[in-house]
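Schema walkthrough. Field components (list of strings):
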Amino acid sequence: MVFKNIKRIQTALPEVLHIVMFYNNGIIFQTTFKQDINIPKLGENIAKMLSHVQKLYEICNFDLVDYKKLIFETENISLIIIKLGENSNLGLFFKKEEDKDLKLNAIRRYLSSIEELIDMDKAELEMKSYEEKEEDYKK
Amino acid sequence: MEGLDFSIIVDLLFSSQDEGYVNLHSLLLIIGMMIIVQISHEAGTFQFLAIRLIKLSRGKPVLLLILFCIITILISAILNNILAVIILIPLTITVSRILNFNPSPYILTQAVLVNIGGTFFSISSIPNILITTYAGISFLEFFLNVGLISLIIFAFTLLFFIFLYKKELIFPEEGFKVLKEFNIWNFVQNKRLLFQSIISIITLMILFIFVPSSLITSDMIALSIAIILIIISGLDPKELIKKIDFELIFYLLGIFIISGGLEITGIVSSFGIILSNLGAGNLFLQIIMVLWISAFLSSSIDNIPITKVLIPVIGSMSEGVSLIDKNQLFYSLSIGANWGDNLTPLGDNILVINLAEQNNRPISFKQFFKLGFCTTIYQLIIVTIYFTLIFQFIIGMVIIITISIMIAIFYLLQKYGPNSMKIKIDKIITKFKNIIIK
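Field assembly_structure (string):
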């Protein structure tokens, strides 16, 4: 289910080297990286990147409403972290290419389906408990 | 000039030769365990095993609750409570995100159960290490006398949680298909380190059980395994040392000085005499008193200083008592000091509330307080009945038979009684549940 979506993203964006699906606490759900790299550390550090930027916003007194993506571009590899659900993110490691922003739109629909699968939002949770309560009252 | 040199400070910190350097042995055991646990944590051992077990639930909510509870006590039997919740709470919330359920019941039950896991082995918590080192209680002896009680109480607590939360535990089955795709190897740095840490923990347990402390003390076993693990793991020792909780070690040293001071000044023995007199010299009453007093004291003050102060108090209370009976007092202290922590959501438990909030799944202080308080009282009552059964068999049997008859009548009335009675009983049960969990 989830892995199918990863494969689709890789097909849609062939310049994507690796994909990391991770939570804000650093737990990696799925990745295309092989076990020969230190995956728990990858998760820990990629999650730290996000929290560092969030702290940076706090220091600068900027309001952090909701982040959408974080781009780190180098000469050979670029990393784009895209927000998936409430606490989940997708890290895409690219070979150096142009026009990534445009191409990202092509994978948006896969992102929302992954988000639904791996991360239930708080709002959804509240809605669910509201529905349960409503059913209780009906009884 | 006696006492004007540093010897008194050294004696207070590490205890004297006459006392067998109990404080030093405790410290070394704690450091050894910290290193083993830190390496196992780095290896991802605990998360790996936890998710492996969770996958066995096959998406059945009650089975998932049972597995979460088992994982909690297993992890907290080896780790200290703080590290256990640091690992478990984010993991539970992540699983809840995948399985689409509200993690609050699971978080709350885990927070309560880490303390039960803390009384499984003599190495499961710092109060246990302090008690067993002081009283010379072996690993096996502790497990047979306290660990087994904890297992029984765990079973009762699990039944209580299932009774409370059964109707709340619902989640869609398709979530489980997604969970199956969760790659558990993502928790593991490398397979070699994972197996090394698992083998080390198993070896440690075997040595603790089979090697008598008169031959090699527990601290030396733990420290030796820790050193071997550092060497074979290939991890950077400097990085490992940075992660050792030195704050806790200095905190312990401070506690050693304070409790030693209280002992030297005679405050401890006076307190011991008061408790002895309150128990009217009756060992059974003293055991029950130690259980409840230590539980209520450790609900508001950290259980480490409470234990350290109460150890010599018990020592002075039990003068002239046989070794087996004396140890019963220590077992009672271990249970009270470890479990009493849950009577209030203060101390370590605040961490659970913070972790849940950090992961966007806040739980309320009130909710935690109600469940923690009720469950701990329930657990302490069962232990009291257990001790009654051991020391006052007839009274214990009368209590057990009375409770069993009451439960049976209640059950039969609910199942086969007239409809009006069934409705009344259902209302009482719902009201009782709502008081605790809503």
